[in-house]
Write a structure and sequence with these properties.
481 residues; alpha+beta; Endonuclease, Chain A; 16-stranded mixed sheet
Length: 481
């Protein structure tokens, strides 16, 4: 009887811990919802990897070239928040050493400008949650550049089935960067069992952004690209911009630093200094809003649900699984909205084969609803873009892009994410380039060279078993997407 009571008590405790940490209040400033403000000097940045029929590859990558330019001219302030910042990669393909290049660029600029304030924020995955050390983080710290590894415990739990157990049994033991003996999936230094126990929480600071002073103002880049060697061949998008939206970006990052016991004084100074006074005689490029976590979901649904017959919706996404988004897309198609959905086939990640979940299962639903779906033609790399584009009949184009996949983990206040929404004239340079980017990715036909995308049939998976596996994984958090 006592044993049964103890077992019941443990189970009730686990359920209570799981429910609380799934629904607890968010840390202050998380799930930031910036107002629509004037957009200044926007530039769309694209990374495209093309595969030709004769076996040649071509990489046309702009994002980190612009990051390095921005770092190299900064005089007073740099803030970088990047999810993956390491040199892990498959051995059989040449990759760009982005982690090393970014580290060296930051150290070189700090050496040239010792008074330059630089802060780097990243995810503890890069040190396997304290089970090893990062040579890049060590080099930055030794060069006088603070690196803040995001505190993830204050965030809600995305995988409560495991996290409730972890919070009771394992979180108290901390970790030891010198006590590892297990193979490290992200590097050569061994890691501890505790690293993999923490990994199973499946939560992250997944943001990807850069802010630096340029001239007498600030410029920001919000992107889907990581300074990660194994990701250097991926297709990605980024937006570089100035204006009051950059202040909102600083405010959203202030919350991450506060949650992680980082020093936010440099941000406070720039938030105070940055001018939001608009010159009425100077026409602006459009409007912009900085959005994080569930605010991204709300804006995506607003764009999809607000589309009417004659409007055009284009979606390019690495992971698409959120049920509200899927249902909204199907409803939009039923209203007569023109839709195109371009997805990664979820076939491979850094040299490892994947199951195709969730994109192939969602694609089946969309195709059955009459929505055209194509797959990016990837050969080892990923179609890592996260873009929702709405071309309205009223001559405006809305773009939503950044770090967030359209999944429960990315959009339901679990991971940390940052996107930017903009509304611009549909013949503006940004809208024209975004349309050209999607159209090139969408190209089809037997004579296409390079082959950028493939028809739905290439990776179609109509298995009902795997479909319901996706649904359970999405609902419970027992997944990496």
């Amino acid at each position: 009887m006592i044993l049964k009571f103890l077992i019941l008590l443990v189970l009730l405790t686990l359920v209570g811990v799981g429910l609380y940490h799934t629904n607890k209040p968010l840390p202050p400033g998380i799930s930031y919802r910036g107002a629509a403000v004037p957009l200044e000097e926007p530039v769309l940045l694209t990374d495209v990897t093309r595969h030709y029929q004769d076996g040649r590859d071509e990489k046309d990558h702009e994002i980190f070239n612009e990051v390095f330019r921005l770092v190299g001219q900064a005089e007073e302030f740099i803030l970088i928040d990047m999810f993956l910042f390491n040199s892990a990669k498959p051995e059989d393909v040449v990759h760009r050493p982005l982690a090393q290049q970014l580290t060296e660029a930051l150290l070189a600029r700090k050496s040239e400008k010792p008074e330059l304030s630089i802060t780097v924020i990243s995810d503890p995955l890069n040190t396997m949650y304290g089970g090893t050390t990062s040579p890049w983080f060590e080099a930055l710290r030794n060069g006088g550049i603070p690196v803040v590894e995001t505190a993830l415990r204050p965030l809600r739990d995305s995988n409560p089935t495991w996290s409730a157990v972890w919070r009771l049994c394992c979180q108290w033991f901390g970790n030891n960067p010198n006590g590892g003996w297990l193979k490290n999936a992200l590097g050569t230094r061994p890691v501890t069992v505790r690293s993999y126990l923490a990994l199973l929480n499946f939560k992250a600071n997944h943001r990807k952004l850069v802010i630096a002073d340029e001239g007498d103002s600030l410029r920001a880049i919000v992107t889907s690209a990581n300074p990660h060697d194994g990701s250097s061949r991926h297709s990605n998008l980024g937006l570089s911009f100035k204006g009051p939206a950059v202040v909102d970006l600083l405010k959203s990052e202030r919350a991450v630093l506060a949650m992680s016991a980082g020093d936010a004084r440099g941000l406070e100074d720039w938030i105070s200094r940055a001018s939001v006074v608009e010159d009425a005689t100077s026409p602006k490029a459009g409007r912009a809003a900085v959005l994080t976590e569930s605010a991204i979901l709300d804006r995506a649904l607003e764009m999809i649900r607000g589309a009417i017959e004659g409007d055009k919706l284009n979606l390019a996404m690495f992971y698409l699984s959120h049920r509200d988004i899927v249902e909204a897309l199907i409803s939009a198609a039923q209203r007569g909205v023109s839709l195109r959905v371009l997805l990664d086939a979820n076939n491979e990640a850094f040299g490892h084969q994947k199951s195709g979940i969730p994109n192939r299962q969602v694609a089946m639903e969309l195709v059955r609803a009459g929505i055209p779906v194509r797959w990016c033609n990837t050969l080892g790399e990923q179609c890592h873009t996260k873009l929702l584009m709405l071309d309205k009949k009223q001559d405006t184009t809305e773009l939503l892009l950044g770090s967030a996949n359209f999944t429960r983990r990315n959009l339901d206040d679990l991971n940390l994410e940052t996107d930017v929404w903009i509304s611009v004239p549909n013949q503006s340079p940004v809208a024209t380039k975004a349309r050209g980017f999607f159209d090139e990715q969408w190209q089809k036909g037997p004579a296409d060279d390079p082959v950028i995308s493939q028809p739905y049939e290439r990776w179609a998976d109509e298995s009902r078993l795997r479909y319901w596996r996706y649904r359970i994984m999405e609902a419970t958090g027992l997944s990496t997407f």
